[in-house]
Amino acid sequence: MLHEREAHASEGCGTCRANRGEIPTPGGVIYQDELWRLEHTFEPIPLVGWLVLKPLRHVEMFAELTDDESATLGPPLIRRTTGAMREVLQPAKIYVCQFSEAEGFEQLHIHLIPRFADTPADLRGPRVFDLLSQATARRRNLGDLA
Ligand SMILES: [Zn+2]
After folding, report:
1. 146 has pLDDT over 80
2. Backbone angles phi, psi at 107, to 5 degrees
3. How far is the CA of 51 from the centre of ligand 1 (A)?
4. Cys-Cys with 95: which of 44, 66, 72, 113 at CB 3.0–4.6 Å?
5. Number of domains forming the structure of the chain
6. Distance 107 CA to ligand 1 centre (A)
7. Distance between CA atoms of residues 118 and 46, nearest Å
8. Owning domain of residue 63
């Protein structure tokens, strides 16, 4: 029963489509193992270094993760990824956010977002998602991946 629900949900799921390679992400896959995939967020890119970590399996909340998915997420994946982001991007902070509210993207996905020292106060904390709205409205990347 659960498998049937997952299969139905994954058909129209943007995250599953990206995981199947049907929606390319800027720069391609950064990391993938048998359970998780790390990529840049879709275009338009709201901010350089804005990454998204998602399970390969269609689940919609942390409570649905298997023991293996749970065990590999926190210390290994989030710690190592944010460590690499700190080294490469040198942000003041790195936000780890999970909402999965956008239509078509209800699958669990975790935003890993650098916050730089010069980020204006009105774009800090949850307001960083205003950058996503701005990029979408302008239909152009605000991040520079070059
Ligand atoms: Zn999905």
Report:
1. no
2. -60, 140
3. 17
4. 113
5. 1
6. 5
7. 16
8. 2-138
Tell me whether residue 145 is in a domain: no
3 CA → ligand 1 middle, Å: 12
pTM of the model: 0.89
Give me ligand 1 centre to Cα 66, in Å. Answer: 15
Cα of 142 to ligand 1 centre, how many Å? Answer: 26
Closest to 129 in 3D by CA, of 70, 119, 9: 119
Residue 15 C-alpha to ligand 1 middle, in angstroms? 5
In a domain, 144, yes or no: no
What distance in Å separates the CA atoms of residue 93 and residue 64, rounded to the nearest whole number?
29
**49-107 pLDDT, tens digit each:** 999 999 999 999 999 999 999 999 988 899 999 999 999 999 999 999 999 998 888 99
- 95: CA distance to ligand 1 center in Å? 23
Q: Dmax over Cα atoms in the chain, in whole Å?
A: 50
The CATH number of residue 40's host domain is 3.30.428.10
C-alpha–C-alpha distance, residues 74 and 48, integer Å: 23
In a domain, 143, yes or no: no
What is residue 102's three-state secondary structure? coil
Q: Is residue 29 part of a domain?
A: yes
Using the mean position of ligand 1's atoms as its centre, give its distance from the Cα of residue 92 in Å: 32
